[in-house]
Specification:
This protein is 62% helix and 0% strand. By secondary structure, it is mainly alpha-helical. The chain has three domains: 43 residues; 56 residues, no CATH class; 65 residues, no CATH class. It is globular, with a radius of gyration of 22 Å.
């Protein structure tokens, strides 16, 4: 084999390796961005569980808000309005209020605002965690973005949690939403 043939093969091999590394990086980065876009989805939970099984601690949940707190809060029947009431009571943001209430429920403590859900509740963000998750998954899986949720919230006069759940339920019911998926950028 001539020296130029070896150099050509080596160069091609390096290019192929570089392309593979770039492709893998983009794939992992894209998957991470998709999971971060919806930290509440079953796909995100599956990734968290898989990473946990190999000893890696990773969560797409907002800082200071665990999956267990999320499930405890929504599973107890709390609504978005309840989360807002707790945030006002505790002088915190809504995510912190949900985390604090969820942790209180996990610890068997009483939360100062009782869940307001009752049979026939009109809040689509209320109910059992599986039903709420199905609505949210329908919203995200249809290609909607955070910006789209903000646009729908402005149209409907609802908070973001209620908006995403209401939109997800509408999609499950086969309805068309007044905002097309992926067409609005976030105002934040």
């Amino acid at each position: 084999m001539s020296p130029s043939t070896r150099t050509t093969r080596r160069t091609r091999g390096r290019r192929t390796a570089a392309v593979a590394v770039i492709a893998a990086t983009l794939t992992v980065g894209g998957a991470g961005a998709a999971l971060a876009a919806n930290p509440y989805s079953s796909a995100t939970r599956a990734v968290e569980d898989a990473l946990g099984a190999v000893g890696l601690e990773w969560s797409a949940m907002p800082e200071g808000y665990t999956r267990e707190q999320y499930e405890a809060f929504w599973g107890a029947g709390y609504t978005s309005a309840d989360a807002e009431a707790l945030a006002v009571l505790w002088g915190s943001d809504v995510t912190t209020a949900k985390a604090r209430a969820g942790q209180a429920l996990i610890d068997g403590e009483e939360v100062p605002v009782p869940p307001s859900t009752a049979p026939g509740s009109e809040d689509p963000a209320a109910g059992d965690a599986a039903a709420v998750e199905a609505r949210l998954d329908a919203f995200w899986d249809a290609g909607y973005t955070y910006g789209d949720a903000e646009a729908l919230a402005a149209l409907w006069g609802t908070d973001l949690s209620q908006t995403k759940a209401r939109a997800g339920q509408a999609l499950i019911d086969g309805q068309t939403l007044p905002v097309a998926p992926g067409t609005t950028t976030s105002a934040s």
